[in-house]
Amino acid sequence: MSEHSRRSPVKILRAIIYARVSKDDSKKGRSPEEQIEECTSDCEHEGWPIAEVLSDNDRGASRHTKRERENWNRLPDILRRGDVLVVWEPSRITRDMKVFGSFCEMVASRGVLLYYDDRIYDMNDDDDRNAVWQDILDGAKQVAKTRKRVIRAMKKNVKNGTPHGKRAPGYRIVRDEDGKSQGWEPDRRQVAVLQKAADRVLQDRPGSMSRLAAELEVQWRAAGGRGAFAGRDLTRFLTSPTTFGFRVVGDTTKTGTWTPALDPALHKPLCALLDDPSRLTHRGSDPRWLLTYIARCSVCVTKGARGVIDHKGPSEKFRKPDIYMCREFGHVTRNMARVDDYVQEFLLRWLEHPEVLAKLTARNEVDRVAIDADLVTIDELQAEIKAYVRDAAKNRRPSYAVTPYVDELESQIQAARARVDAMAVAVDPDVLDALGPDARAKWKRRTIERRRNVIRATLTVTITPVERRGRYSDIGVQVRPLRMLPAPLRP
Which of 218, 241, 274 finishes a domain? Predict the structure, then answer.
């Protein structure tokens, strides 16, 4: 510690190291590993025992950041009196003044100290608090300046129709004699690989983009392609408007000034195939977990994202249980065994429910005729709405006279669709076979794939955030039956 450092009169019992890095393409910043190494050295010099080492990679900390910091969110559950939080620099904590205000009050109330730049700061000391606040304010101001420059450049590029940001796959940067970028042009070798992938998708319609990416990865690397080239990356390349020479501004798509890497006419058919939610993509090994890619993250769904829930196993260092977690943003994590038990108990009660059994096993030829009749009714009602609205517009009828009649027809359409949905469940043989008072015995004999089929056909499962953590916390799982069918008592 330097001669200007300051030691705390409070005895420090534990050190908690926290590291964070935003996306750093320039490689001029410190990686989390480098930050942790330097913080560890400081703790060893001070003689502080290290209790936890936390890091968030590729996570911003300004007020404009949308991605959650998983390990940062764990700090309130970890920090206690006698701890010192060790960071490489104050901006690693946050660049958001609102977030820092809450953090400052939390560590002050618990008597937790803060350490960076060879000095200990006590948030209960006014001078220390003001010094840290000023450091955080400087970091927030720098982010604001950078953001303004980026937005100004984006607006200029939108106006000129020129590309913005990192070079897109399939292109190379054209530079003048001084090395200044003059724009993009297609890279012939990379374009050949992307064209081959597009042809395969349009002609063969492969179910697994991961398998197609694996087949083409060697050619992509040989063509100078860098970065990840998994199935999701190849899908992104083939659906990106940039690849086809388009510039998207809000809801408007414009033609850019750069040469398209692929024929612009292929963009819509490729997007239609690759963005189709009904496209079967699984061609690999059998699934191992009950709810992966079936359950959804409630935070993501609320924001309009897919909210994929994936599995994460215990690390070699920490013996922790398997968990389900939000794959993209880490909004939710939950003990896998608890979630599986809860969902299975809900489902088994549903399968044993006498009313469910009666409705789903009573399907016969009469029901199939009823489904056909309802489908015809839906088509007729939709056609009637179109004709009525067209006639109302032609005769200039006021909206208050048109809306009630249209709403009534729409309610009839919804009722018909509900009847079709309720009867259509019986088409799935796995669901039919699972029904009855012996549903639990049947369930034990089923493979994981058949169990997943039943869950996918009958339930929606959503994992939500909970305030308390630990084995006695709330389950944080919402389970609802699909279609218009009765629900059992919750487990």
Answer: 274
Question: Per-residue pLDDT tens for 139-186?
Answer: 656 655 555 555 555 555 555 555 555 678 888 877 777 777 677 788
- Tokens read off for 392: 């109302």
Q: Does residue 385 sit in the same domain as residue 434?
A: yes
CATH number of the domain bearing residue 231? 3.90.1750.20
| Residue for token pair 């065994």 | 337
Contacts of 479 (CB under 8 A, 6+ apart): 342, 343, 346, 347, 459, 460, 461, 462, 490
Does 155 map to a domain? no
Please indicate, yes or no, if residue 152 is contained in any of the structural domains.
Answer: no
Do residues 124 and 69 both lie within one domain?
yes
Residue 288 included in any domain:
no
- Alpha-carbon separation of residue 12 from 2, 51, 86, 180, 491 (angstroms): 19, 12, 12, 53, 46
Buried b (16+ CB within 10 A) or exposed e, 380-419: ebeeeeeeeeeebeeeeeeeeeeeeeeeeeeeebeebbeb
Residue 463 contacts residue 333 (beta carbons within 8 Å): no
pTM for the complete prediction? Answer: 0.36
Nearest to 19 by CA among 45, 43, 46, 47: 43
pLDDT by residue (tens digit) across 332-391? 888 899 999 999 999 998 888 776 666 665 554 455 556 667 767 877 888 888 887 778
Q: Residue 312: beta bridge partners?
A: 323
| 207 and 141 part of one domain | no
Q: Which domain holds residue 246?
A: 171-274
- Total domains in the chain come to 3
Q: Are residues 427 and 311 in the same domain?
A: yes
Beta bridge partners, 16, equal: 52, 85
Q: Are residues 207 and 269 in the same domain?
A: yes
Strands (E), 245-376: 246-249, 252-255, 296-297, 309-312, 323-326, 333-335
As to burial, measured by CB atoms within 10 angstroms (0-12 exposed, 13-18 middle, 19+ buried), residue 441 is: exposed
Q: How many other CB atoms are found less than 10 A from the CB of residue 286?
A: 9
Beta-carbon contacts of residue 319 (< 8 Å; ≥ 6 apart) = none
Instruction: Name the helix (H) or strand (E) containing 479.
Output: strand 477-481
**Which tokens is 462 given?**
């959503």
Which H or E run includes 374?
A: helix 365-394
- Are 365 and 450 contained in the same domain? yes
